[in-house]
């Protein structure tokens, strides 16, 4: 039973142990399963320090109903957090989190959570170093890596607060500070969207490939979709149809003009001149529903483990386990396609509609006819002649080749920049930024302020402006 003063107030008392004198106070912090009091002992060299720590503990109990945890280390909390994330995020994201914890925070994993202050965490973030493939330091970390570490810290400490191990989150408000060296390096490596002229050159080059390979490149250039969504496009999710629209046409019209002849006499006559009229026309258009993306998904052990943590199946590699399971977040739909390649639900909301403009719809009509006799066991839109999927590596190599044939250095661009190029081109044609956001399905908060929902017809009209901005009429496709 904790010792109390005669007045009934709990106070520290002086005691001695092993020849060492100190002040001690025992605080009841709860009840054990058997109903007996759970007591925490506070020891200090002076009565003042002992009283201070006692009052802090009593304040915690009054506020939270129990004492905060001062023993749990950052490493212990991080492992609990990673265990949750393991089933909550895709494998590549989990691997990034794991690197942040075990590589960039390794030096501090032994320290108790209670020791971390805002200043200490800001210092860790400021001192972050980049590492090469072999784990060797290569200099100061860049902005993206620092943002990933900040997110990791914020979520780990938020979990500790939710579990009532800490009173507040010291990672809130951390700032990304990069030095001149990093800023210069990132400026030099910054990649810009393709220009309109570069987009036109790539469309022309792709047409020379023939429709089997070129259609996939046009699909990338003219939809702004992500690579995994393109190579994982499912044929039944593509709908091509005829639609009526108003198109400008040039016609000859008689125009009355006044002129002066050679004798200086003013005369009136009629001449045929070009005029632009808007007429209703039938055009081939379409839409694609983004329901799947193709990803290389790892597999892990599904068998029980021994007390030492070894899998009972006898295999070290999880993919060989007879009970192997796919490593995907809970709730993710998955269809195995070929080896580790699987169709999984996309990054953005399933069922998003991407408009297909007339110039692309016509190419896709030709492509579907050309591919009608090609096996398609997985229902893929783009595939090899044996029906197998096109891998990310193959698609990247094809796009690099397309850039080289178009006079573009692949070292200065990536295929993902076609998404930014679609944004740039649509914006240059006066399309509303909120509508662009919906077409390319960005999640940037800055682009979704005052967000509004647009109908399919409105999205298609916007995408038709992309065709207007490209001078690619009359391209002859190689048979």
TrEMBL record:
Record keywords: DNA recombination, DNA-binding
InterPro entries reported for this sequence: DNA_brk_join_enz (IPR011010), Integrase-like_cat_sf (IPR013762), Integrase_catalytic (IPR002104), Integrase_recombinase_N (IPR010998), Tyrosine_recombinase_XerCD (IPR050090)
Pfam families (UniProt xref): Phage_integrase (PF00589)
GO biological process: DNA integration; DNA recombination
Domain of life: Bacteria
Domain Tyr recombinase residues, every copy: 189-465
Molecular functions (GO terms): DNA binding
Family recorded in the similarity comment: Belongs to the 'phage' integrase family.
PANTHER family assigned: INTEGRASE_RECOMBINASE PROTEIN MJ0367-RELATED (PTHR30349:SF41), PHAGE INTEGRASE-RELATED (PTHR30349)
Protein name according to UniProt: Integrase
